[in-house]
Amino acid sequence: MSTSEGNNIKPRYGPKVMQLREIVAQPVFAAFCAGGVAGAVSRTVVSPLERLKILFQIQSVGREEYKLSVGKGLMKMWKDEGWRGFMRGNGTNCIRIVPYSAVQFGSYNFYKKFFEASPGQDLSSLRRLICGGAAGITSVCFTYPLDIVRTRLSIQSASFAAFSTTQRAKLPGMWRTLVTMYKTEGGIPALYRGIIPTVAGVAPYVGLNFMTYEIVRSYLTPEGDKNPSALRKLAAGAISGAVAQTCTYPFDVLRRRFQINTMSGMGYQYKSIFDAVRIIVAQEGIRGMYKGIVPNLLKVAPSMASSWLSFEMTRDFLLTLRLDADDP
Q: Would you indicate the residue range of the signal peptide (predicted)?
């Protein structure tokens, strides 16, 4: 081939596209984007069970509207509100979970770098636990106001006696709920009500989740197999989610109770975490701290499995965009 012909060959990609591919394919950025996709996919898959869990959790003693089995609870939700009832609050949850999961996965990979003796070296279980806990706290602080709004939207359309038909006919949206809470319930602190039990639960939850996932996956993945099957990833995600959720579930109940603590008609107004635990155990027994755990465990497997699977598929795809990945 002549020199003139070689000079006429155009580059495969323009300079801007090449630069964008290099940025997107950076490990931390790829994990950030993949985390956002994973969060949206997993929450949408289990939205009906997630909402049912919340309705179970916030019922104090004397509330009978959703004192039902999982199947009957889902049927009641469908009968009362139809498909929209299954997805009530999911839009806000996805808006929340995309940055939440993105920050969680991205910060986990970021914090891991501080504990690695050398790049790519495996961490001990304790260090994974610490990195996961720090990632959980980071993501919660960024997105908590959207979480409390998601809880409010989930229960306001439910057929509780505390909410009249007129009230339910004029349900506010996400932004209006945020503004109303800010103006009428105490400003910024109102948007972070319940964050203490949330952080107390999310740090060990996320830490256990990441730690258990990587441990289980190391057992399920044959040595030297760098590309395990989707089934193994699904199994590792399901097991890690079930372990983490079961160990930290009482904190999730406290979180939901405090998020609606100032709403009238719910039958409780707790003064502190210890006051809430005392009243719940006295009135509802130890089982009160585990209300909604059945639909929660039912959703853990598909939620965590789809989360980890979509995370790794998205991350791996983005990493392939690196320019050297095109080299022979």
A: none
Q: Residue 195 has which token pair? A: 């964050």
Encoded tokens for 183: 């103006």
pLDDT in tens, 5-59: 445 444 556 677 677 777 777 777 887 788 778 878 888 888 888 888 888 888 7
**Token representation of residue 283:** 């009135």
Cα–Cα distance measured from residue 230 to residue 243, given in angstroms and rounded to the nearest whole number: 20
Point out the residues of the chain with pLDDT beneath 50. Answer: 1-6, 8-10, 161, 163-168, 325-326, 328
What domains can you pick out in the chain, each with its CATH number? Answer: 13-222+229-326 (1.50.40.10)
d(CA 74, CA 71) in angstroms, rounded, equals 5
What's the gap between Cα 46 and its chain centre?
A: 11
pTM: 0.67
Q: In this structure, is the dihedral angle defined by the CA atoms of residues 250, 256, 259 and 263, taken in order, positive or negative?
A: negative
Radius of gyration of the chain (CA): 23
Amino acid at 81: E
Contact yes or no for 106/315 (Cβ under 8 A): no
- φ/ψ bin of 163: left (φ > 0), alpha (ψ from -120 to 50), beta (otherwise): beta
Nearest to 140 by CA among 87, 237, 90, 205: 205
